[in-house]
Sequence to fold (364 residues):
Amino acid sequence: MLEPISWRAWRVLTLLTFAVSLAAPALSAQPAPASAGITVRDAWSRATAPGAEVAVVYLSLENPGAADRLLSVSTPCAERAELHTMAMEGGVMRMRRVAAGLALAAGATLRLQPRGPHIMLIRPTQPLLTGGNVELTLHFERAPSLTVRLPVLPIGSDGPPRRDAP
Amino acid sequence: MKLSLVLTSALALGLSAAALYGRHVAEPPASIGGPFHLIEARTSQPFDDAKLRGAPAVLFFGFTRCPDVCPTALSRASRWLEALGSDAGRLRFVFITLDPERDTAEQMARYLTAFDSRIIGLTGARAEVDRVIAGYKIVALKRPTLADGDYVYDHTARLQLFDARGRFQGTLDFDDPQPEALAKLRALIRGEPISGER
Fold:
């Protein structure tokens, strides 16, 4: 029989891993220049049906600077906000909450859009009505938080008219 | 030695591909569907599979806590019904919840007021919804989102089309351009084969 790793060794190992995980961000933190400025574009939400306990927010994050991460979202307009990925695979919609946030590659734009990643608002404090607004604050790993106010579009909407549309 | 291994693998691959393909093609469309006893949300009256016969039906499966796909599909459906004009009355459009624990008849009825009033909402006992999921070959996977027990469903987002005799005719994607969706629905209403179906 193989001797299983002893409980004591296991605990030491776990503690060590934990300590390293705590120290790692501090060790890896570069003297990061103040963020070149993440820009929020095309932010919008969709009106909710009566009784709907969730709402959705889409937006684009332009990140001209170094890689960052959208860690979380807070809002006074709902009980809480979650970051979700979503994909359509063979006619099946698959959705996951992403606890670790969404990566923002350096010099790239992250697009949250219908049938894709989104911010889900859980139990909006009031129904979202077309023409109304939602306020939320985006929290990043490196860049300072950004507060945005965005419009509520009609329930069947696929977003504001695209700026690059002909 | 190497060559024979390659040949054998190729043969095995070919055979399994043929078997898969054969199964796909041979699958009788009638294998989608089946009996159920649910509750109509607005009236709280029983609604069973027999009520789907006598007119062509479009079935969509989802839940009211769905952030994107369900409200979008239901609002597209509302637009289609409006565009069909008087023909829409010859079609039954049914939204069946996959989450009857949270989607009570009252909750669904309230939710559906945002959409075309001809859309029929169905909920019911968990066991009956599970019977629908199995019979209609729907993917419905409960996924926890938080430790507090909150969850979402991964689910089939295509709409299923049935003729007036309850026979499966094909599917419709709510992201299909409206002209294509309307062409399929009009064919369904006329009892014609649905184009673009394999």
